[in-house]
Each structure stands twice: as structure tokens, then as C-alpha cells.
Amino acid sequence: MKPHRAQVSGPFTMMKPSDFKDSRLRHISEQSVFQVHERDGSASIPRWPWFVFLSGAMGCLICSSLSHLLACHSKRFNLFFWRLDYAGISLMIVCSFFAPIYYAFYCNPHWQLIYLTSITVLGILAIITLLAPAFSSSRYRPFRAILFLVMGFSGVIPAAHAVILHWGQPHVFVSIGYELVMAVLYAAGTGFYVSRIPERWKPGAFDIAGHSHQIFHVFVVLAALAHSAASLIILDFRQRSACAR
After folding, report:
1. What is the C-alpha to C-alpha distance for residues 135 and 164, in angstroms, rounded to an integer?
2. What is the pTM of this model?
3. Where are the membrane-spanning stretches (predicted)?
């Protein structure tokens, strides 16, 4: 007769959801990182569009950090990394559309596909254009700013559609309010970027701190925070609202 061996739990032991005594921990353990489960457990809302936005925002800031750090290395690096910076901004704009459009048109997959495909194609074309060396010069600074604004404000159409589609839903109105704040912040940052205020008023005084490009980045981060709030609100709305059958 073989001796009985006691099972010892270790850090690598697989645990099942039923092993959790606390009901809240059990509920969390049963959820996928990429799914938001509805209260009745009948359906689940994918969370991947939210992570698309986060990835785009982090990718944009990483590209910007690399550009500011390495663009001064040489002329070759300067051309490459500033183009990478512009491509990162386009990436962030495109990724910002995924969460609100996906959740707002969750019950309308055709419109969802049309809007997401349109902004993705527009973003790819913008990135290809911005990666061209000819558009990296300061002469095309206004053109780049206009391109970013066109991409950003192309969201007016799906936003208006979402308001009409979900008329009377307070979550949607609050989310649109945050998106308007985001648009104002982006526009203000772009205004500083194009006008080169305040360094144009006092050249040399803002070379280290207070430069228009730095102000632009502050507005970009604030706009991203506003968009985060809008996306979470529309996600909460989708969790609470079932699609009509």
C-alpha cells in the first residue's frame, strides 16, 4: 500500500474560482481581463477597445519621448524621430475612436464597422503622409496641424449619430460633454503649436521651459484624460443597456 502524500499548496499551484471564500474575489477571478460581465451574467461586453485607446495613448507618448530624447543626435535621427513623433500622434487619434464608437454602436454593428474602418483608413493615410521626409520641414507645420485637426474633428459625425441614436440617455450626453472638452483642449494645444506662442514674443527665453511644444504636450495629456472619462462613461452606459432584440 502506497503511503498517502499530503498536497502542499505553493505559489505555482493552480487555483479555481471556487477556492475563493470571498464572493467578491470569486466574482473577480471569473472575469476575463478583456470582458465586462453584465450583472445578470447573460452577456458580456468586450473591453479590448478600451485597451486599444490606452495602447495608442502610451504609444504616442513613447514616440514623443524617443523623439525629444534622440532627435538631437544627428540630422538623420532628427528627420526620422520627428516623423515618428507625428505618426505617434496619428496613432493616438485613431485609437481614441475605438472605445466610444465600439460601445456607442455596440447594437449597430454595421455603423460600428463603417466608422471604425473609416477612421482607421484615414489614420493609415495620415501616417504614410507624415512619414514622408518632405513633410517634416517647418514649412509644413500648419499642414500637419490641420491634418491632426481634421482627423480629430472627423469624430463629429459619429458623435452626432450616437446622440440621435441614444437620445435622452444621460450617459451619452455626459460622455459627449467630455469629448467636447477633449476637442477644446486639442484645439488649444494645436493653436500654441502652430502660433509658436510664447517663444515668438521673446526668442530664447523659453528654450528650456515654457516652449509652445511643451504646452502642446500638456494639452494633449489633459485631452487624453478627458477622453478616458468619456470612454469609461460610455462603457458604463453599455453595461447598463441591453440591445433591443
Report:
1. 39
2. 0.74
3. 48-72, 84-105, 111-133, 145-167, 173-194, 215-235
